[in-house]
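Chain X:
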Amino acid sequence: MPQIVVLPHVELCPEGAVLDVPTGTSVCRALLDNGIEIEHACELSCACTTCHVIVREGFEALAPAEDEEEDLLDKAWGLEPTSRLSCQTIVLADTDLVVEIPKYTINHAKENH
């Protein structure tokens, strides 16, 4: 089963985490299902940038981002070459990922889903 290593985030995951994730699951869903309350203002529909993550390891193995995701990422805070929207990043078989949740999002207020 693939793993997602979540680097420590001061508010959302202070200790970091290692998650066993079923193949085909989005990174955002995996985080939420494991109690890591990443922002997801558009309810995982690829309509905002609040679930932005930086893939520190495993990026090359992911399917390329679609144009819609790329356009939204241009608006994300702290964009890096390996940035992805976690709602659109699907965990593949035998591909472990290391992800970092950026310190900020473009939201002015937390949605508290």
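Chain Y:
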Amino acid sequence: MDLTVVAYIAYLLISVALTIWVARTLSRNGRIFLSDVLHGNEKLADAVNHLLVVGFYLVNFGFVALYLSQDEAVLDARELFEALSVKLGVVLLVLGVMHLGNVYVLNKIRRRGVMEREQVPPVAPQGWTRPAPGTGA
């Protein structure tokens, strides 16, 4: 079998396995974070979590597929490992950037929710107080 084909197969197997592992890890651990962001609404947190996982899979599998092609033939074991290391390194960087992007956006949403909760007074106003005389109001 041609070593270029071996490189393709190894790249696909490792990339798909890494993408699935990262997606499952993010889904499992991100559910708690989403529940906090969405003020304890578990159904909405599960739905958003599922949508994020589907989007994560689509983007990453699409990238893995587009990045599959190899311009040069792989002739020996050294070139096989070099080609795999470059391709897998780029896939890992893309997975990391996707993860950091998700965390950044969700943290922004969470911070906005915390600020909105802090702006609501704990007790409704019970009346008005007139300004003191001579204060210019």
